[in-house]
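Case study B.
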Amino acid sequence: MTTHLDTLTSRSPADPSDVLVRIPAPGAFAAVDAVDRARAAQPDWQAGGAATRSAALTAVADDVEAAAGELAALAVREVGKPLTEARAEVARTAAIWRYYAQAPYEPTGEVHEVAAGAGLLLSRRRPHGVAGLITPWNFPFAIPSWKAAPALAVGNAVVLKPAPEATACAQRLAEIVQRALPAGVFTVVPGGAVEGNAIVSAADVISFTGSTAVGQAVARAATGRGVPVQAEMGGLNAAIVLPDADIGQAAGHIAAAIAGYAGQKCTATSRVIAVGAALDPLREALAEALRAVPVGDPADAATVCGPLISEHARGQVLDALHGLRALVGGTVPHGPGWYAAPTLVEGAPAGHRLLREEVFGPIAALLPADDLAHAVRIANSVPYGLVTSVHTAGLNTALSGLDRLDTGMIRINAPSSGVDFHLPFGGTKASSHGPREQGRAALEFYTAGRTYTLSPAGEM
Ligand code: UN1
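Model:
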């Protein structure tokens, strides 16, 4: 992990003079202590039964809903998420807890016949113990929840280390979750690299979302200890537009996926691949849609593109423009806050940084392709493979033309960003490591299989 911090500071990206948190970093010792306390609390939580766990998760969902307005306002202030999107994230968070509140009642195994003789074979899934979760700032309620809720549902205890930029959101979420759970079962340890490393060195299962460099280091460390690990990392997601697409609809979806929350999602679109005759009308429609994106104060419900998380993050967007002419944007609005205008470039040469590295800003490159097969080759030509949106009216294209796309998720006639929490989430190549998260896949990840052989006692 890259950040070594003595003091944790979180400030509003729309007004950097607004400091939400300034606390001493708790240190490695405190992180390991939280894991130890979680390990002591976990057996009773597991043994408490399905109804107890289900009721606790339902209580969290209810309390998130009851606090919805306040939580959305906190995400606006701390991580600059535009209000309408922040409200949607809080609603998604409540739905995630409600969905996983049913999981304790799900079957945990299978019964099989023995190969020969009398007896029974059972397979059953058991929790690992303590789940160590390391989460980013961009979905400060939803990502901790879609990791913690399934881990808790199947009987693990949880220690969560949020990104420093989202410390206040994580602490507020902890208050809500802790009200519903026995002491020690869910703990937030604020911090940076030191605390994160300590959790990775002590927990029984690790789930990470964040940058590729850190995720790969986490995966190596956990694998070295022999504990299960999943890491959700970067994306360099393509939108492929076929000539038969509804170009106006495609432009709207793609503009939202480029500029929504200033492109600060691993699912954002950063490459737009126009097939054949789609190029000219798409260029025009997308430029118009991007110019129309409301940029500004995240507290305004009409805002779609708010500020970048930090001055450094905005600098990355400007650096990525190097040597390119912007069709739209490429400018930095005046005033406090780390804003950048939604930006579209054309003519980026092969190998340009924009086509190799995740920038995490409201910027995308428009690229031409001769036909669908060419578009798929371009889409695959990056080290990442998280999500690809495809815009077409053709069912054949959607169902059979995309087999060779090297990507974890395909979204037809929809923005690349946005996910359904009840389905598995994850990608290929440098985007993801280990089993999928979310949906039922998460219940498998947070448990280990055990096989029982039951033979009759005595003579048969
Ligand atoms: C979304 O697109 O709604 O960190 C979710 C991220 C992803 C989640 C994206 N893991 O941006």
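The domain at 7-233+431-453 is CATH 3.40.605.10 (Aldehyde Dehydrogenase; Chain A, domain 1). The remaining cases will be described in the next quarterly update.
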